[in-house]
C-alpha cells in the first residue's frame, strides 16, 4: 500500500493514524518533496477513474495560475500543470496492495480502505 501525503494536512495525518491503528503497512510518499511524474499521475487517475481536474484543489489551482479547459483535449496539459505544481493535487491518495486507488478525504472512504486491506 502507498499513501501520498502532505504532512501538514490534517486529513493525511488522520489517514496515517487510522492505517497505523489497524496495523496496515504502507509506504509513505511525501508528494510535495517527491512529486509524481506525469506517467504516475496519469496511472493514478486511470485507477481512480477520474480526470485531473476532479482531483485538483481549487484554491491551490488558482494560486498556481492553472486556468485550463476541463476537457479531454487538455487532459495532458492538466497533468503537466499538476506535476509542476504538486500542491494542486488532492490528498491523501491511497493505493491498496491490489491497485485499488482512492482519495481518502472522508472517514467512510478511509474505513473502506482499512476493511479492504484487512480482507
Automatic annotation (TrEMBL):
InterPro entries: Arsenate_reductase-like, Thioredoxin-like_sf. It holds the Pfam family ArsC. Signal peptide: none annotated. Belongs to the ArsC family. This is Arsenate reductase.
